[in-house]
Write a structure and sequence with these properties.
The chain has 136 residues and is of the alpha+beta class. It has five helices and five strands.
Length: 136
């Protein structure tokens, strides 16, 4: 599980269209600002458990991993604009009770904004949200 440092066509091709057309689900590790793409067919909780230790179900350890969803107008070559950025909600929060600080949620949102900018992807946000419902 290697961290990503650019959102390339290859990243979208391999991990895009997760649960909806054009969606790329990311996890930001706030301890080191590493960004991971969540594989298609893998739930956030299971991916985080791979990162922290398969036998672990420690929501305190999970706290440092913030989910961020990047939505893009789907095109065959992944050239569409980013039209959505939603941070702070996945099954990990809803079903398993993982909670994050508001500061970490906002920080993860900005880290992914910088990643998008660094990747030279056009942005035309229709949705730009930090969900604080599951914050502490």
């Amino acid at each position: 599980m290697a961290a990503i440092n650019l959102l390339t066509g290859d990243v979208f091709e391999k991990f895009g269209n997760r649960k909806r057309s054009g969606r790329l689900s990311l996890l930001v590790d706030m301890a080191n600002e590493n960004i991971y793409a969540v594989p298609i067919g893998v739930e956030h909780i299971d991916f985080v458990r791979e990162l922290i230790g398969r036998d672990s179900f420690d929501t305190l350890k999970m706290r440092r991993y913030i989910p961020v969803h990047v939505d893009r107008y789907p095109t065959p070559d992944w050239s569409g604009d980013v039209n959505g950025l939603v941070t702070g909600v996945s099954g990990m929060e809803i079903s398993y009770g993982a909670r994050h600080t508001k500061e970490d949620l906002r920080g993860a949102h900005q880290i992914v904004r910088k990643l998008i900018e660094k990747s030279n992807i056009e942005v035309n946000l229709q949705e730009d949200k930090v969900i604080e419902r599951y914050s502490i």
